[in-house]
Structure formats: structure tokens, C-alpha cells
Design a protein that fits this description.
With about 180 residues, the protein is mostly helical. The chain is globular and about 50 Å long. The protein is built from 6 helices and no strands.
């Protein structure tokens, strides 16, 4: 098994999840949001460092999206529970459902030797950034420095949900595009 700093950052992202949950339930929403935001930053950092240092690996390529999906799904569950409204719940259902669909699609495409058709795209990166920002604001959910973080978080969650659906459509379209190399 490969072990390097980028993979360590990915493990730290997974290990941050129970701390984020505990802080959330101990009523430390700012600290919980900061843990989530820092974990979200490691999503960017591990990929950047792996590419820069030539430490990309198949294990890292597998573990990184798993860590992202776990982190986002748990944050969404916490937010749905605390906010209990149809729009947040619907957004969470769409985001989590998309992640399951795309994960299954990638697994299937790899099995049929077409994994490159569903490689990570820029839209997926934008989606992840919008999710992390929106969920950070919604985990804290209080005004800060005069900024209405709840409203900003909801707006960014709507953008993240739209990007989630759009990126799913693009991945599905690419996956089922006829192969022109035959």
C-alpha cells in the first residue's frame, strides 16, 4: 500500500469526520464548520501535492473521492437534521444520489475498460468547491462579520445542487457516447 503526504491528507479528511460530528452535537458549530472547511482544503491540497511531487497512485485516486463523498454526505446529514426543510433535504438527496450514481457508473465503466470516459472533469471540481463552501456556511449557520452565512450557504447549496445535476448529465453523456475508435 502506498503511503505519502497526499494520502495522509486524505486519511486525515476521513478521520476529521467524527470530530466534525462530535463538535456539531456538542454545540460548537463554528469549530465543526472550521474542521469541515480544513478537511475540504485538504481535498485540494492532496491532489495538488500528489501531482506536483509525482506521488499520484491508483490507491490515492480511489481513496480521494471516497473521502470527499463521506465528508460531504455526513455534513449534509447533519445540516438536514438541524434545518429540517424540504429544500435542504431535496438538495441533500440530489447530491448524495448523484454521488452514488457516478460512483457506480465509474465502477461499471472501469469494468468494461472505459474508465477514461468518466474521468474527473472541471464541472465536478466546481461542484465540489460549491458544496464545501455551502456546507461550511450551513454548518455554522450564524451571521459573521455582518454576513448572513445561512443565506449565503443556501444560495451556494442551490448552485452546488445545479452543478451536481449538470455534472451528472455530462458524465452520463460521456459514458454513453459511442466510441469512435473502432
Amino acid at each position: 500500500m502506498v503511503f505519502n503526504i497526499p494520502i495522509l491528507l486524505t486519511y486525515l479528511r476521513i478521520l476529521a469526520i467524527p470530530f466534525m460530528v462530535a463538535l456539531f452535537y456538542l454545540d460548537f458549530p463554528l469549530t465543526s464548520a472550521v474542521v469541515f472547511a480544513l478537511a475540504g482544503f485538504t481535498d485540494w491540497a492532496d491532489g495538488y501535492l500528489a501531482r506536483r511531487w509525482g506521488q499520484e497512485s491508483r490507491f490515492g485516486a480511489f481513496l480521494d473521492p471516497v473521502a470527499d463523498k463521506l465528508m460531504v454526505a455526513v455534513a449534509l446529514i447533519l445540516i438536514v437534521e438541524s434545518q429540517a426543510n424540504i429544500w435542504v433535504t431535496l438538495a441533500a438527496a440530489i447530491i448524495i444520489s448523484r454521488e452514488l450514481v457516478i460512483s457506480a457508473l465509474r465502477e461499471w465503466m472501469a469494468e468494461v475498460g472505459q474508465r477514461s470516459k468518466v474521468a474527473v472533469a472541471f464541472t465536478g471540481k466546481l461542484k465540489t468547491a460549491a458544496q464545501i463552501m455551502s456546507l461550511t456556511f450551513l454548518l455554522y449557520d450564524k451571521p459573521m462579520l455582518g454576513l448572513p452565512l445561512h443565506e449565503i450557504g443556501l444560495f451556494l447549496l442551490a448552485i452546488a445542487t445545479i452543478l451536481t445535476l449538470w455534472s451528472m448529465v455530462l458524465y452520463l453523456k460521456d459514458a454513453f457516447r459511442p466510441d469512435t475508435t473502432e
